[in-house]
Amino acid sequence: MMKEIRHESVAPTRTQRLASGGEIDAHRHDDHQIVYAGRGAVAVTTDAGSWVAPATRALWIPAGTAHRHRAHGQLDLHLVGLPVTENPLGLDTPAVLTVSPLLRELIVACTRSPDDHSPPQLRLRAVMLDQLRVSPEQPLHLPTPTDPLLRELHDILSADPADNRSLDELGRQIGAGARTLSRRLHDDLGLTYPQWRTQVRLHHALVLLADRTPVTTVAIRCGWSSASTFIDVFRRAFGHTPGSRPTA
Which structural domain, as residue segments, surrounds residue 206? Predict the structure, then answer.
């Protein structure tokens, strides 16, 4: 659970640069917010789990959601505040969205001149809202387990995503059978063990890539048998190869 949550009545619209490892402490605001990393990757954590978004994705943070940010790689962070009456996505929970080249440029333009309320800027904002309405939601959420046994398992995998032991072997370490852990994974997270492990590995891979770790090294550190296997899984998850992300 997050402690000492700062309250902000208005979600800011601005561009902010953070060094790798830099953080914005836990806070919440009365407005919705779009969070976009033009360079690097941003991790957003809530009590429900964490989301990591590279430059082809943006994060939707609904009004009232307590969250904190962490930079991976040199981060150009674009924040767009939206009044609570404006919810182009119709979502009341955090989500990851696909960012098209057009939406990317609109977000950057809106955050470059946040105090510009001229008719041309308002029209850009209106087009941005239209683009948000048609942006597909992506399954990049890494949920936080509530079950104590799964939290132990999560800590093991997070410490070493390359740990290739079977669920039965891991279960012996934490004192639970594979069948019990599989059932709890399904009940708590709605995922199988391979699905969950892949999510953990992909999130870790995004962090390493943001720090410019070579693709082959990322594949090894995250437990894939080869760089080609990692690239294939990454492409299916994100729609592009690990080395082809745009820069701001």
Answer: 145-238
